[in-house]
Amino acid sequence: MTITHYPKNQSRDGEEEEEELSHECKELLLSLPKEKGWRTSHLYKYQGFWCQASEIQSIISFQRHFQASETDVVLATIPKSGTTWLKALAFAIVNRKRFPMSNNNHPLLTSNPHDLVPFFEYKLYDKHPS
């Protein structure tokens, strides 16, 4: 499975396009503590973490719709703790029969581990309204 990165839509002044957010998410943002952001205009404190508005919508969607199956493997990490390395290891282990390390066409040789093992909130639930 290939996942392509598409930059978020931004307005001329660099602010995140809020019309992509659901009405429910916009209403929730009004009630959350907020601070000036560095990649977007604001960060909002949601469930104990500082998040971008679009991340909050994705988190809500994930929490409502995700149904784990018996064969799922979920990796949970905090930022700057070796997430990329862990994703590469997990991908190699889970796919070791499909892509032996001796294979010169192993996906880890040509793809970023974040594309092979996507984030729920950034890739899988980012376009699904809550």
From TrEMBL:
Keyword Cell membrane in record: no
Spans annotated as Disordered: 1-20
GO function terms (MF aspect): sulfotransferase activity
Every Sulfotransferase domain range: 71-122
Keyword annotations from UniProtKB, A to Z: Transferase
EC supergroup of this enzyme: transferase
InterPro entries for this protein: P-loop_NTPase, Sulfotransferase_dom
EC number, UniProt record: 2.8.2.-
Family that this chain belongs to: Belongs to the sulfotransferase 1 family.
PANTHER family, per the entry: SULFOTRANSFERASE SULT
Protein's name in the database: Sulfotransferase
Organism: Fagus sylvatica (Beechnut)
